[in-house]
Specification:
Blueprint: E1 9-11, E2 16-20, E3 23-27, E4 34-36, E5 43-45, E6 48-54, E7 58-66, E8 74-82, E9 85-94, E10 97-106, E11 108-109, E12 112-115, E13 122-130, E14 133-139, E15 147-152, E16 159-166, E17 174-183
Antiparallel strand pairs: 1-6, 2-3, 3-17, 4-5, 6-16, 7-13, 7-17, 8-9, 8-16, 9-10, 10-11, 10-12, 13-14, 14-15
Length: 194
C-alpha cells in the first residue's frame, strides 16, 4: 500500500523511496524532468510520478513537504493522460526562491510561476478535472484553498493523478507526500476557498 492505496503505477520509479500507510518519501534521481519543446526545444519525460487511476472527473489533494534549494527543484501533483497531455503543479525553485509553478502540456508545455507567500517547504495542492476544465488550488494549511490556475484540459475517460517530483539540475531532493485524497469533483463555486 502506497499513500493508503494499492492501485498506484510508477512512471520513472526513483531509486530510493519508502512508503508506510498514507506517507510516501522519495529521493529524486539525477536530471529527472517533465517538459515538452517550448523554448528549450527538447522533450523530457523522466520525472518521478506515482499515478492512481481515476474516472473522467475527480478532485485530488496532496500534502507535500520538501526543502527546495536548487534551480528547478520541484514537487507537487500531476494529472496525466499520456506523455503529450499532462499537468504538474506545486512548488518549483526558480529565480532564487521557491515559487508556485505549474506546467500544462497539450502537445507542448507552457509554464506559469508566481511568488508564494507562505512556507514553501510545507503545502497542500489540489487538482480538480471536470468537463474539460482543470482547476488547481494551493493551500498553506489544508483548510483555505485559493485558486492557483484555471485552464482548459483535454477530456478523457480516465486519468492518472498523484505525487510528482523532479530535479532537472541535480539529484537528491527528499520529498515527503502524505494525506493523498481522491474523490468525485468537489463542484464548489470558483471563489469558494474551502
Amino acid at each position: 500500500m502506497i499513500l493508503g492505496r494499492a492501485d498506484g503505477l510508477w512512471l520513472n520509479e526513483p531509486k530510493r523511496w519508502a512508503a508506510e500507510g498514507d506517507s510516501l518519501e522519495i529521493v529524486t534521481d539525477k536530471a529527472s524532468d517533465f517538459w515538452r519543446e517550448t523554448h528549450y526545444g527538447f522533450n523530457r519525460d523522466s520525472g518521478h510520478f506515482l499515478g492512481f487511476p481515476t474516472g473522467e472527473a475527480f478532485t485530488a489533494e496532496l500534502h507535500v513537504q520538501s526543502d527546495f534549494r536548487q534551480l528547478y527543484d520541484q514537487a507537487g501533483i500531476m494529472v496525466r493522460i499520456d506523455e503529450r497531455h499532462w499537468v504538474k503543479a506545486g512548488i518549483e525553485f526558480s529565480d532564487g526562491q521557491a515559487m508556485l509553478g505549474s506546467v500544462l502540456t497539450d502537445e507542448r508545455s507552457d509554464w506559469t510561476t508566481a511568488p508564494y507567500q507562505n512556507d514553501a517547504s510545507d503545502f497542500w495542492v489540489r487538482a480538480t478535472v471536470d468537463k474539460g476544465v482543470l482547476r488547481l488550488q494551493i493551500s498553506a494549511d489544508g483548510n483555505l484553498w485559493p485558486l492557483m490556475r484555471l485552464a482548459p484540459f483535454p477530456m478523457a475517460s480516465s486519468y492518472l493523478v498523484g505525487p510528482m517530483a523532479c530535479t532537472p539540475e541535480r539529484d537528491g531532493l527528499k520529498v515527503l507526500f502524505t494525506s493523498f485524497r481522491l474523490s468525485p469533483p468537489l463542484g464548489r463555486p470558483l471563489h469558494d476557498l474551502s
